[in-house]
Write a structure and sequence with these properties.
globular, about 290 residues, 7-stranded mixed sheet, Rossmann fold, about 30% helix
Length: about 290
């Protein structure tokens, strides 16, 4: 069964292409998010030599090279965005990776997988592109991202027209991420969350940054008609009731390894040398036996 098409991928590509000329304006945010993700490289003694940067928007690849990785390829839906890498660049789709199995020992996707329709399929392809014992690192904006903007738009549109259409993309939940990594065949999966604190002096500043990053609404179910004339003025007034506008960015941080025989594995059931009851210093009870009997 094919994955539901939530996002208009052609529209995502066009918007990222247009954003390539302006993305430097949000580079500090992208760099801060990438720093939080790449800090995980400090937790391993592995030396990486062939890295793939997926959707790094000209920020991630230079950071990987600065860490001494000699071969870095950047891939993006937009050729113009991919070219910001400053090195080897490929225009490609996360859902159809154009790389042979085992091509890289490190794959990094910083804030780039949240508009993929088939995320489980994309993770499987990333797993195939990794060499044995290769590392996958990713960050995705999580549930709660742009929540203030979402609520302000819904309230304003409901007041003006009596209904609301989706104007902010859905975001994934942390609880689903580790299972997706494991389902993709990645070993030692870890999913945790960190928050990047952001605040804006105005709603227009927030929207300008979203446009500069190529992050406008690309949901297929969006209303194609021109929005009501007062919608955004009303929504922005609601959003700016508190200034600066708190806009925290919850980052779902994913880590997984391509399987390799050197990695630790869970013990085989029944192979323990000591009983749990002995380790805890309590009497052993049979299944179904009530305590105290």
């Amino acid at each position: 069964m094919s994955a539901p098409e939530i996002f208009d991928r052609a529209l995502v590509a066009r918007r990222r292409g247009r954003a390539a000329a302006h993305v430097a304006g949000v580079a500090p945010i992208l760099e801060a998010a990438a720093d939080m993700l790449l800090d995980r490289l400090d937790d391993t003694t592995h030396r990486f030599t062939r890295a793939l940067d997926i959707g790094g928007r000209g920020v991630v690849a230079p950071m990987l090279r600065a860490r001494g990785i000699p071969f870095v390829v950047s891939m993006d839906l937009s050729p113009r965005m991919a070219a910001l890498n400053g090195g080897l660049a490929v225009a490609g789709d996360e859902e159809w990776l154009p790389f042979a199995p085992g091509s890289f020992d490190l794959v990094v996707a910083s804030l780039s997988l949240h508009s993929v329709n088939d995320l489980p399929g994309a993770l499987v392809q990333i797993r195939r592109a990794l060499a044995p014992d290769g590392l996958f690192l990713a960050s995705l904006p999580g549930l709660g991202t742009l929540q203030g903007l979402r609520e302000a738009l819904i309230a304003a549109e409901a007041e003006i027209s009596g209904g609301a259409s989706p104007r902010v993309a859905p975001f994934p939940e942390l609880r689903d991420m580790a299972a997706l990594l494991q389902r993709a065949g990645l070993a030692l999966p870890v999913a945790d969350m960190q928050e990047l604190p952001l605040a804006y002096r105005s709603a227009l500043g927030l929207v300008a940054d979203l446009r500069a990053a190529g992050e406008q609404n690309a949901i297929r179910a969006r209303n194609p008609r021109i929005p009501p004339r007062m919608l955004f003025a009303s929504a922005f007034a609601r959003l700016q009731a508190e200034t600066p506008i708190p806009t925290p960015l919850p980052l779902l941080m994913l880590t997984g390894w391509a399987p390799h025989e050197s990695q630790s594995r869970p013990a085989r059931p029944g192979s323990a040398d000591i009983r749990l009851a002995d380790a805890l210093g309590v009497p052993e009870q049979s299944t179904g036996e009530k305590a105290g009997r």
